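Notes, Module 5: Reading structure tokens.

Key idea: the token line is not a picture. It is a compressed description, and you learn to read it the same way you learned to read a sequence, by spotting repeated patterns. We will look at two proteins. The first is printed below with its tokens.
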Amino acid sequence: MKKTFLKSLGPGLLFAGAAIGVSHLVQSTKAGAEFGFGLLWALLLVHLFKYPFFQFGPRYAAATGETLLEGYQKLGRGVLVAYYLLNFATMFTIQAAVTIVTAGLASQLFGITGDLVIWSSILLLISITLLVVGRYKLLDNLMKYIVLILTVSTIIAVTVAIFSTKNAVDMTQILPSGTVEITFLIAFIGWMPAPLDVAVWHSIWSIEKNKSQNTTPKQAILDFNIGYLGTLFLGVCFVLLGALVMYQSGETFSEKGGEFASQLINLYTKNLGEFFYLFIAIAAFTTMFSTTLTSLDASPRTMEKTTQLLFSKKTKLNYWFWIVCLALGTFFILKYGMDNMGFLVKIATILSFLTAPFYAILNYTLITGKHTPKEHQPNIYIKVLSVVGILFLVGFSIWFLSSI
């Protein structure tokens, strides 16, 4: 029974692996370091209000046997074209952002070379090799171990931080003010726990899972809930780490991925002790490698599927074309735009937030409309939460645009 349950897990853990990356290691840690516990309200609210729209990905896939992309096509060709353009516009920057942070951590953990472009190339080649050799099945199995290592090492680090801190805990919640603080809040929310278009990735992974193991909508939602609760738990952990170890330390984080990675690990070990260097480094590296790997798999899958749906025929722009295209595009961004990575990450996270209402409305329209069987549509509580969530995302977008 236990073995069967573990085997049934898959897309939910891939979701967790994709989500727990820059949003957690970088943004959540910075939130704790700069605001203490003051932004926990934002972390909890964004998880609550984004929940339905992420859940609709595996729900729709299990109910219809289709990905959200096919659902978007049914809502109108223009919707699919808009998705295609948005995904193409952001996927290179997102992949570059997660890869450079991973490279910085690899350099700290393994040494060999301090050249982050070389490390990025190595990591991209390793990721592509894993995907070529094992495709979805290997990714599915590998992520179970990565998430386990990440969770255990993070819990150890948080536990040590709690017992080591001598500072009084201040739970006062903060509403940022001023352009800089508001911009950080929007970037924090934008990728927490992940950009909403990751729901599309989840629906694709769900269809892949169904090729080897049929999954009911109930099982798909349970799998998703486990992964989603994991992202929430670890998000809180990284805010706690930032607050307990870095808050009011006087440390200013670099905008460069490699320097940030070095500062992050060194500051943790300085406060927690050199003995915990390995735990911190492993937690940080597995966090980012899982995101690098899953995003390198997911974006090409979505581009291949969208291309096929738009042009209604077999195309040479397949999974392997897009994975090479993404890897090369990422390499050139890192080669020639390394000094602007902080700016690129900020643009990508803000764009993710501003497009969130678009995906939220699409997913809600699709899951409550004629294209989803009535028996698999969400209950009234999820529908109400969805409407409130859409208002939350739209309201925050308007507030941000009026504040800059």
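Here is the second protein, with the sequence above and the tokens below, as before.
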Amino acid sequence: MNLQAKSILSSPSRMYWRITQILVGLVGLGIFIALIFFPEIGIHAFWNVLIPIAPALFVVAVGLWRNVCPLASTSLISRHLGFAKKKKLKVKQQGRLQLIAVILLLLIVPLRHTIFDTNGLATAIIIGILALIAIYVSYKYNWKSAWCSGLCPIHPVEKLYGRKSLFVLPNAHCKTCVKCVAPCPDSTPSIHPLYKKKKMLSNKIAGALIIGGFPGFIWGWFHVQDYFNNEGWKYLVSTYAYPFIAMTITLILFLVMKKVVAKKHEVILINLFAAAAVSVYYWYRLPALIGFGIIQGDGMLVDFSQSLPNWFPIILQTLTTLFFAWWIVFNKKEISNWVIRPPYKKQNKSIRNIINPTV
């Protein structure tokens, strides 16, 4: 199978992808508007529909999300229209951005309990701020390097969960590869948070935090309640304490196991912690969505607690845990890249002669 040939999208195929990106973008815009003017609807649509779907999508088809993510599409408008500056990110800068992305994720998520889960306007504001940052850094730096593969707080989760993709798609954003980041997360098989050709301290810290700390962080997060009417600011310390203390415990466990486990088995250890993180998430999230949450009412989309038997959530929890353990850890499916790398951009002949006069 010639994957490289399949990476060159025909004009109709590219048009279909653009239409899909626009439609997904319109849905995102609709949710954004609802968060401001119809906050109850917007909060349910964003926090209780879109966000619960995302981790499962990252596990089975992260490349699909990378192709249609509305924030990614928005950030790349300047590049698609041809007026981006295309500044090259240095390797050290790339590592620092990825560490900042992990820190942003860990700082923003606990604030859901304090304000974002119950305040549509606040959620819209943080989304707007992230969108402006994405647009600016993507305008300044080359292609997907600064946002989609750098500063985006969701990117570390994509690398943690997206180890085995159900299918590989053509890259719907990049017509040619300009080597904006190395290694390219979209087209590097076996990519994970600790994967790096040139290992730097920032990459090691970011990778260890998201792999080892995320299972505990998620567990701790679900043991904090949502607060209303700005009451949560009084409990800010405990809001952060639960996920951060639990994160520290699982991080220490990971670091100890990493020291003990042979280098050749390190990927298995990473897969175990990835499966643990996503399993813990759905262990608590799915029951909460249907009214069986450990904190009554938090994160509920629809209340089925009076119509479904008490054992039903246990079935959901068991099935999702078994699936993620099988898919991420035990499934023998060949680990592939998220999307197919497009052809490398051909250098101008005069530029090649300057670089290598013998050409």
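Summary for the second protein:
- The chain has one domain: 3-355.
- The chain has 15 helices and two strands.
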